[in-house]
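Our preliminary data section would be incomplete without showing what the modeling component actually yields. Below, a chain of 314 amino acids is followed by its predicted structure, encoded as tokens that our downstream tools consume directly.
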Amino acid sequence: MITPALLLPPLLGVALLPVAHAAYAAWVRQRFPLTGDRIELGGSWLHFTRAGEGPAVVLVHGANGTWHDFPPELIRDLARDHTVLALDRPGHGWSEAPAGPLGLAENAAALTALLRARGFERVTLVGHSYGAAVALRAAIESPQLVSHVVAVTPCTAMDPRNSRYASAPLVGEPAGRVLFQFISLTLLPFGLPLRAQAWHPEPPPRGWGASRAFAYVPSQMHASARNFRALAADMAWLERSLSSLVARLTVLAGEMDQVTPPSRHVDWLSPALPAARVEVLPHVGHWLLHVRPDVVAAAVRRHSGAQSSSPNGR
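Predicted structure:
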């Protein structure tokens, strides 16, 4: 027979989970404090950093990441001859999530609102994974603001992996915000094999950088789930609308990418946009940004008009 005394410890442990998650979120924000600037857009704060001078390049991170997804050596290289903006998408890092839907349309609207507020036009957008889809939507909807999209290991279609995330019950709904206060940190063991897939064929780096730490903050995990909740409709919109893209498009894919494999996410782009430049790099996976930042910088400079004295410039 289960007595109240036996039930008390597990019930107390469950009750303390929100406290543990609040303490974790506070630690992450103390360990990785706010840098750069924040701007209020539609009642929510959007965080971004800025470096360098020259033609504008905006870096858009992927699912459940932050601006730290872009390696510092890439930012330093581009900042030699560009104005580099790197933002935390709504609900990620130090940016707040607005109420209501939070799919590609809302992410792209926040991005273009930032560009208008700061007076940037004809920019290059560098989007990684889900961030590439955000960049493409922004370019399609605001062609006067975007001249070039560099889509790095882009997410452009539904596949079995992201379909599972998109169909997960509750997590992308309002109740998910409460749910993640109880489960975010308990998902860490499940995240380890996914992390290994993302870094394949390279070994995952040791330790906890800002992007990995923020990924388990409950509010950010909920924002990412809200992104995925809209993913099926968003990918259908992208497939219908891609042919109307005016900006130049460069696609950089990793041959060994296990997260957004080129066969599903890249191969269909060339028939849809014959003028697009598509490069599939051998022996490279999803984190092409970190493995070959020189290729990303060269792709930006190919159309930005800037010429760097950096040894990585092309």
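The two ends are 73 Å apart (CA to CA). Strands lie at 37-41, 44-51, 56-60, 83-87, 123-128, 146-152, 248-254, 277-281. Preliminary results of this kind motivate Aim 1 of the renewal.
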